[in-house]
């Protein structure tokens, strides 16, 4: 696929689009080569030739798209490919590093805190919101499969819900779980999760296999 | 660009080319690990055939019915000449890419290919390096010292064990379940791990010790409170909330086939129930297994197709045709007449060996 050149407008449009994460990942992968050429490395010296803001937005967007496609080790590798001089001065990229540490250590509370409380560029907001929602869904599925019974504050902590409302046993908070089929026992104050089923994406045989099988068939006949 | 070139020329990436090696090497150097995955995830079934082994005219790359093996040959110019070390390096580098991405199962497969590569007398240092990593990745993936693949020659295994003694010793300590001893061994041989560039892997081995110990406990107990579990697994006191968080992380990551049950008491610790005995629904787990089985089935279909191709190629080779010819000539002279039709191939080859001696 031929993509237009990497510019701030093009990147912002891509980030704000509702494209599936896998498509975003492919597009940004294509752009990485262009982004790499904006940094010149000679020996230990590194000089950024391109637009610093564009580079910052590119790398932070690419980082979030890695997380959205559930590629955490790959996201870590990306942080090693970012230009050092940029990561040392750019707040968004430094926030990405802090977020990565929290995700890596499965510190759910910290993840929500960084996503909601850290200063992020306005243009990156659509991806941050998408990731927060993705992280909540993923966590909810994991909790539903891992716990037989769970206390409301613990479950709410996993989803980053308001702890004050949790203490008041707010019906809206409880509804977050009962809407997924979980049961709430007001006597024991325990939630009984119902495992959330996600059918793995059907893996279609690729063309190579189809061709190979076709060839086998034609040989046999 | 290199990756796209490889896949454009040969979408199945079934023939190993020098470009494969270049790709994985550059990906490792640039820390762009996932870029190599579309090629690494395809299985290599063939090496470029040497000119003297080519029996038919090379097909054109655009021919629809041709497999890549027929046009990626030693003389086609698509690949420069590959040495024995190049084969080893490709699989070692591939294994290292999977290690960086924590895909331990795939890493073990690639390292196993290097470790079990046939050798005449000497063992390549690349193979020894691969064996060291094989030991560590085996601990991370399976929690035990994995024996090299069955096809590895016994003298090669002995060489590995003598040259990678600190690694074998570390793995044995890990298996014995003694954390203090494991840590002291890690510290004592720190220079060795650093010199071999394996310190990162060794540190991860220490990190997975707890999860492996918990998995082992599942073979003995049906359920345990988190406090008891930590006491059994680590034999050292750990703060309740830390233990709770560590155990829940393991269960939620799917590393542990178990479920947690919290009590209504906020200060009470959870109970970990190993799923084997529990009534907890296992459907999600079974769906994952079903999906894995489908993937394996596709892989097997692909493998069968390639095996048939290799079988045909071997059947058409000069060596095979010569053997058959000699066998027929020998049979015609009255050497063999009692074999059943289906058995002739094997018997003739055996008798032929004796024919050479006369």
From TrEMBL, chain A:
CSN8/PSMD8/EIF3K domain location: 55-197
Protein name: CSN8/PSMD8/EIF3K domain-containing protein
Stored Pfam families: CSN8_PSD8_EIF3K
Cellular component aspect of the GO annotation: COP9 signalosome; cytoplasm
Primary localisation category: cytoplasm
Compartmental location: Cytoplasm; Nucleus
Keyword flag Cytoplasm: yes
One Gene Ontology biological process: protein deneddylation
Keywords for the protein's UniProt record, in alphabetical order: Cytoplasm, Nucleus, Signalosome
From TrEMBL, chain B:
Keywords on record: Cytoplasm
Ranges for domain COP9 signalosome complex subunit 3 N-terminal helical repeats: 2-154
Pfam families linked: COP9_hel_rpt (PF22788)
Region (Disordered): 334-358
InterPro entries: COP9_N, CSN3
Bias (Acidic residues): 348-358
GO biological process, one term: ubiquitin-dependent protein catabolic process
Taxonomic superkingdom: Eukaryota
UniProt keyword Cytoplasm, yes or no: yes
GO cellular component: COP9 signalosome
Stated name of the protein: COP9 signalosome complex subunit 3 N-terminal helical repeats domain-containing protein
